[in-house]
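User: Can you help me understand a structure? I only have the sequence.
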Amino acid sequence: MSIQVSALAKHYGQQKAVDEISFEAKPGKILGFLGPNGAGKSTTMKMLTGYLKPTSGTAKLCGFDTQADSLEVRRIMGYLPENTPLYTDMYVQEFLLFVANTYQLKDAALRVKETIEKVGLVPEQHKKISMLSKGYRQRVGLAQAIIHHPKVLILDEPTSGLDPNQLTDIRELIRNLGKDKTVILSTHIMQEVEALCDEVIIINKGKIVANATITELKNEHKMASLEDIFRKLTS
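Assistant: Let's start by predicting it. Here is the structure, written out as tokens:
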């Protein structure tokens, strides 16, 4: 398994933001990670990426513990946070070259060129990031997440702020990335989950309330709509 989570918990005083959750994610699959606001999604994502220390439990990416092996985890992981931190005074190409050099990539300039083409940033590559629309900034964020060919890709609201045309392009890109990587995708958009995800985890009040394929969930709950299932499990 590319991702193994065991009894992972994060407490803030008496509040259990994430309450001893366990799950696995496989290579070549896209896992949808769903939940209402405040359910523990982003907290879980931050623990998976090593940016947040769990209160208890473990998370491993390709066998590397997110706390004990944090450098290895960062080498094999790509992360797009909900609000992507970007150096807005840098130019797109300049920023991505900086990221590539941080990973000490060979042929960094070629890798930047390939990544810019892959995420559809060619027309904007010579602009300052501060001049870009929200949708194009999101593409820059996705570019920095995949530039080093990570084995695991963690995407927190990856299509936030995209128009319908951009949405189609980025969904297709994520679908292609999911063929040879392990992808965890957090979103509020149920159509996105249906279009992209092989399996779904629903978290509510820090606990996992569903972990199955979309077909299995629909059969189990006798409902045709993933949105109705989500509302039933999280209301």
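Now, to help you interpret it: The chain is about 35% helix and 25% strand. The beta strands are 3-12, 15-25, 30-34, 56-61, 64-65, 77-80, 152-156, 182-186, 199-204, 207-213. Let me know which part you'd like to focus on.
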